[in-house]
Amino acid sequence: xxxxxxxxxxxxxxxxxxxxxxxxxxxxxxxxxxxxxxxxxxxxxxxxxxxxxxxxxxxxxxxxxxxxxxxxxxxxxxxxxxxxxxxxxxxxxxxxxxxxxxxxxxxxxxxxxxxxxxxxxxxxxxxxxxxxxxxxxxxxxxxxxxxxxxxxxxxxxxxxxxxxxxxxxxxxxxxxxxxxxxxxxxxxxxxxxxxxxxxxxxxxxxxxxxxxxxxxxxxxxxxxxxxxxxxxxxxxxxxxxxxxxxxxxxxxxxxxxxxxxxxxxxxxxxxxxxxxxxxxxxxxxxxxxxxxxxxxxxxxxxxxxxxxxxxxxxxxxxxxxxxxxxxxxxxxxxxxxxxxxxxxxxxxxxxxxxxxxxxxxxxxxxxxxxxxxxxxxxxxxxxxxxxxxxxxxxxxxxxxxxxxxxxxxxxxxxxxxxxxxxxxxxxxxxxxxxxxxxxxxxxxxxxxxxxxxxxxxxxxxxxxxxxxxxxxxxxxxxxxxxxxxxxxxxxxxxxxxxxxxxxxxxxxxxxxxxxxxxxxxxxxxxxxxxxxxxxxxxxxxxxxxxxxxxxxxxxxxxxxxxxxxxxxxxxxxxxxxxxxxxxxxxxxxxxxxxxxxxxxxxxxxxxxxxx
Amino acid sequence: xxxxxxxxxxxxxxxxxxxxxxxxxxxxxxxxxxxxxxxxxxxxxxxxxxxxxxxxxxxxxxxxxxxxxxxxxxxxxxxxxxxxxxxxxxxxxxxxxxxxxxxxxxxxxxxxxxxxxxxxxxxxxxxxxxxxxxxxxxxxxxxxxxxxxxxxxxxxxxxxxxxxxxxxxxxxxxxxxxxxxxxxxxxxxxxxxxxxxxxxx
Lengths: 611, 201
Known about the structure:
The complex is a heterodimer. By secondary structure, chain A is mainly alpha-helical. Helix content of chain A is about 85%, strand content about 0%. Chain A has 15 helices and two strands. About 30% of the residues of chain A have low confidence. In chain B, α2 (about 30-50) packs antiparallel against α4 and α2 (about 30-50) crosses α6. Helix content of chain B is about 35%, strand content about 25%. By secondary structure, chain B is of the alpha+beta class. In chain B, a hairpin with a 3-residue loop joins β2 (about 75-80) and β3 (about 85-90). A four-stranded antiparallel sheet of chain B has the order 5-8-7-6, with no helix packed on it. In chain B, strands 2-3 form a two-stranded antiparallel ribbon. In chain B, strands 4-9 form a two-stranded antiparallel sheet. Classes of the chains: A mainly alpha, B alpha+beta. Chains A and B meet through β1, α1, α6, β2 and α7 of A and β1, α1, α2, β3 and α5 of B. β2 of chain A pairs parallel with β1 of chain B, so a sheet runs across the interface.
């Protein structure tokens, strides 16, 4: 460096590092843009709002069903006032029974009609069952009010939701055509991402509400079963009650097993559908391969025909001597060029076929994996021994028949009274003993089966177990009814809030779209400006700000595209495109060969005419 | 079933991303940095040239400024390098002006300091009159100094007029105002890089 020259150097070390980072970020951005294009080109499947509306209607129907179920349980039309009155009556019964005043219990029990049977029970039983009923009834007013209130609220929210949805839809339709420049692409992608998120959120909320309602329905069903169980226990003879209870327990277990089997069945059906889809894809690819191979053979035949014609119509000795032979030589060269192209195409076809075979292998692997899954699913479902359950059901039916026969026999014996003779008494005693033996065997079998399916063990003919069973049954009845009420209220609350939130989100999104677009644009511009400012600043002070600003700029852009991360390329589409390309090239080669052949024939005819 | 879709009419985002990526890969931002550095430097030199305070000696002597800073501007160039950008001022006087330091005569005994307007910006050899060594009264210090004068004897009874003062050496202070300050550079570079990015859009 000459001393005459004074140099001021600006080193860009920091900016270079930032630039390298930005390059990487932009590569990601470019990829994201491609993804977005592909995603944006796809229509948004379905109509989440319509689904939400449908879900609401289904929810309403279920609420109505629940109300009817409550009416069935309570034995009277359900409204707030009537339920309160009923609650007071039941409260009186509970008080009376706990005080041991059987007479009063009996009188008051008759007074409420639907609960008259309770009056015939012993005082402890009356107390237990009354407490259970009181628990159920006490939950009813709040439950009914919650249902009616939330139904109205949800309906109102649905109206709001529909209005907001219409506006959002109009706005969305207005913005169908967009200019995708550097700034607006960020805005649009952000909006698209938000829209997807909102829809997903609403769908999830609706799904949760449906699940809560389904759970409530299941709880109510369980309450109904428990009520039936309690009634059956009450009407059965003391010595038969464990059997009755065992029967109900088994029924419950069977129901649960059936649900498991049904769930597994649905999984298997899904697997089968997936396998069927893969099989179709595979068949399509095979058909495409066959078509490609046929076209290749046709092209080969055309080439052979052209070559044969050339062989017959050209003479090597005529080169450079005879003008006609020159023409023929030219045609031959053209054929040679066509043949060369055909050869290249054939190589290309071979390569395509190889790739298709690879795709088929992959599909086969996938298919095999799904088949394995299916077999595993079938094996698992078989673990739930359906035949075993059927056997238990048969045992239960026969046992019920046996009990009925025995009860009849006992009643007949009681009616016969002192008129029966000794032999007859002995016969009846023998019958009773035989029945008793059968019942014990049956119970033992049921007990074993129950243990195999996870049902709780119980003592046969144990008075303590009877009382405990009744108490538990009553307690469960009360608890389940209370839970059902809470669940219904919670689920309807959640459902209503989901509706409300969904409406608010959509309304806010639609109303503020223009503002949000502007804000997004401003934000992008500001971010870029800030990045540039920081970048330039970092050049000067050599600090680490460039890295931060570039990182921020990169992450801002990347985040803008983050909504679309999964690009799905269908195998069938890819293969179809490849085959289309292949087909076009083969067609061109065929055409070339055909033209060459035609020209050869024409020239040969001209030569023949000249000679 | 209602479905929605976005049709993309114009996609300038992807080309923009590709352009900026390519430009960054080639570090093309160094060129606007170099150009901005050059422009700031040249503008500063011209401003200095136009500023009366820059020409204190010429003003004191009543001489016409030589246009040194205009020459600096003329001698300014810039280029992008492997490591960034460089602004060059190819002028023999620039370094001394910026850095200061001691100046000693080369191939002679004295340095010549202009003492009057017609001597300003010229060497003794360039003068149209024959100059001789002598003594002259420095009007500022009121002391006799070695000088190059036109007529030694003209001083008889009068004070000989000095064309140049003769000194063994001169020590100049660094002048930080010769070049633009960092703030000016950074501001200009900042805008240039911003414009460069916008130009890629």
